[in-house]
Amino acid sequence: MAKTVIDRIERLAQVSAYPWNLTRRVFSPQQAEAEALVLGWMEEAGLSARHDPAGNLIGRLEGAVPGGQAVVIGGHVDTASDAGRYVGTLGVLMGIAAVERIVRRGSPQGHAVEVVAFVADAAGRFGIPRLGSRAVTGWFDEHMLDIDDDYGVTLRQAMEAHGLDPEGPAAARRVAGDVLAYLEVAAEAGPVLEQSESPVGVVPALSGSMMLRVTLRGHAVGSATVPTRNRRDALAGTADCILEAERIGLEREDVAVTVVRMDVEPVPTFVVTGSVTFGVLVESSDDAGRRAATAELAAAFEGVAARRGLEIDIERSVDPDATRCEPGIVHLFERAVEASGHPVTRLAQGMATDASNMALIAPIGLVLVRCRDGVGWGPAGTVDPADIEAGLDVLTFVIGDLANGSDPPADGGSRVDVRLDASAARKLAGGGPS
């Protein structure tokens, strides 16, 4: 099955607006062409396929109760500009392959299983990230329809050209209880799995992030007329702040600190810099650790400003809590990794995904598959067939157990009672999933 997944990824990579990079913008002819391929693969696997009113492509394997709860595996087919071939599509294609395995085994399903290709995971064309899952969770705002792309085409016009009713996304909404569990699988964009020598990592939470916007103001003077010791140089102060940001990031193992942008004034040569504005991104799945690092950064920057006689302004973005995966599903994924003969590795998902929205209506679970050199989200990303095979073993195991052995969450999204059926227990006792 891993070869089939890779062959399909390569086939989809040929569907692009440009021959020199992979670009399939949302509601474009390229997205339609790619979805036609995916729809065909869904039907080959035994799924009934359709589009919902928001344009999401849904393949469903019915359960014991028609129209009942479903275990949902999500991804996307459209891309941002110059995308990696595994981004989004890996989750969709591995979901299809896992369902095909389940169908071939002939196991009865207590609950339905769905594979969903959401529209517009990346901000991309209209600057609206995760548009499809917004609609599914009831967060679609009709004012978004008037947002236009770089060519003046509005979202409303793009949806109409794609054969969709712009007034339809509200009808795509699903309520808590419709989805038993929401799962994602993606390529890791980092080195943790290579370092741990494990092909599959389990995600306990999607990292939360916040931004500091820092402005240092000094005195713009001629470089030849003011001795270095007498200057109030905003750029030199910024250099100190950057080193402080690096120090704090290195000292806090579970927090990533990144200086992301710098605007310098004035620009002319032979003038000492009078003002610098820079951004600092602070990311972690540990909310308390992220907020402590943010406070430490602000104090360090203020100390730099005081020492150098600079004025400083610090603006803070909204700092939402990290999105937690359901502990029962995390545990089930870990059991599946162990059953397939690999060490369990936990790691954070550093990017917001559709799971961030789906967590509003269902318990979620995520796994990442090892990517060569840790560049799974870039154009150069490569996932080895053996690692895809290991990911399929884990995903099939978890889908099968949730669809057959787990009770639905009592309140539509806060709990999963993970109970292994007899078949799953035998697999754990005697080796990996077949």
From TrEMBL:
SUPFAM superfamilies per record: Bacterial exopeptidase dimerisation domain (SSF55031), Zn-dependent exopeptidases (SSF53187)
InterPro entries: Amidase_Cbmase, Bact_exopeptidase_dim_dom, Peptidase_M20
UniProt cofactor(s): Mn(2+); Zn(2+)
Cofactor, free-text remark: Binds 2 Zn(2+) ions per subunit.
E.C. number: 3.5.-.-
Alphabetical keyword list: Hydrolase, Manganese, Metal-binding, Plasmid, Zinc
Residues annotated to bind Zn(2+): 76
Family membership: Belongs to the peptidase M20 family.
Complexes and interactors: Homodimer.
PANTHER family in alphabetical order: ALLANTOATE DEIMINASE-RELATED
Protein name: Hydantoinase/carbamoylase family amidase
Natural source organism: Methylorubrum extorquens
Biological classification of the source: Bacteria, Pseudomonadati, Pseudomonadota, Alphaproteobacteria, Hyphomicrobiales
